[in-house]
């Protein structure tokens, strides 16, 4: 086979590999997560959310409102961190890491949810969005 034939098969192989990798959506190779943060304090809170790959920026969550985002879990090391301000109070905590996702994981299905509830006394996480306090685990105080 000549060089042109080798080049053609190389391009064909790379193209097929690229399409095969691209055709796997988040739900086929990895878990798609949606994280919800509910503000249950009487004032606005501000949260800055970021991971090693994504900076979601600052978000103001009014009282009784919910902020959410969706991401694909990486094979190695998914980690989203939140930095919270409520008036003069400040707190930071992991919002999605191995421990939190194990707490929230319910079905090993393609889609999972994780719920955060911000209260006057701290931050609670749950795999379901049941009325407080059923199923909620306190992770950190203000």
TrEMBL record:
The keyword Membrane applies. Keywords: Membrane, Secreted, Self-incompatibility, Signal, Transmembrane, Transmembrane helix. It is found in: Secreted. InterPro entries: Self-incomp_S1. GO terms for biological process: rejection of self pollen. It comes from the Eukaryota. The chain crosses the membrane at residues 6-24. One of its GO terms (cellular component) is extracellular region. Pfam families: Self-incomp_S1 (PF05938). The keyword Signal applies. PANTHER family: PTHR31232, S-PROTEIN HOMOLOG. Belongs to the plant self-incompatibility (S1) protein family. This is S-protein homolog. It comes from Artemisia annua. The lineage of its organism: Eukaryota, Viridiplantae, Streptophyta, Embryophyta, Tracheophyta.
């Amino acid at each position: 086979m000549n060089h042109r034939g080798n080049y053609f098969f190389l391009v064909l192989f790379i193209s097929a590999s690229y399409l095969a990798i691209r055709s796997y959506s988040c739900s086929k190779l990895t878990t798609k997560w949606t994280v919800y943060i509910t503000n249950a304090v009487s004032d606005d809170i501000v949260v800055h959310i970021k991971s090693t790959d994504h900076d979601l920026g600052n978000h103001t969550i009014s009282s009784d409102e919910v902020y959410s985002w969706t991401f694909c879990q990486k094979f190695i090391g998914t980690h989203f961190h939140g930095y919270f301000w409520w008036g003069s109070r400040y707190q930071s905590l992991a919002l999605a890491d191995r421990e939190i996702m194990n707490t929230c994981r319910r079905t090993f299905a393609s889609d999972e949810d994780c719920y955060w509830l911000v209260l006057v006394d701290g931050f609670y996480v749950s795999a379901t969005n049941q009325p407080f306090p059923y199923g909620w685990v306190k992770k950190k105080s203000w």
